[in-house]
Design a protein that fits this description.
Layout lengths: L2 E4 L4 E7 L6 E6 L5 E4 L1 H9 L2 H8 L1 H4 L6
Antiparallel strand pairs: 1-2, 2-3, 3-4
Length: about 70
């Protein structure tokens, strides 16, 4: 792990992954072990999202605790 970002609600491990065609950010939910990779375009999209849209994405009831997710 290159770093960990955590709070009372979440803990995520961060690493730069160089195994793909280009560098990408590897994110790991340290509670569940779930991993997601984000490339530069996806990261830039997060930067440009309106704050309200990002808040909606961060709502854990939308995806995290759903049976069909």
């Amino acid at each position: 792990m290159d770093g960990i970002v955590g709070s009372e609600f979440a803990e995520v491990g961060l690493r730069i992954d160089h195994a793909a065609n280009g560098p990408r950010l590897r994110l790991e939910d340290l509670r569940s072990g779930r991993v997601r990779y984000l490339d530069a375009l996806e990261l830039e999209t997060l930067v440009w999202l309106p704050h309200r849209t990002l808040q909606d994405l961060a709502d854990p009831s939308a995806y995290r605790w759903r049976e069909d997710g």
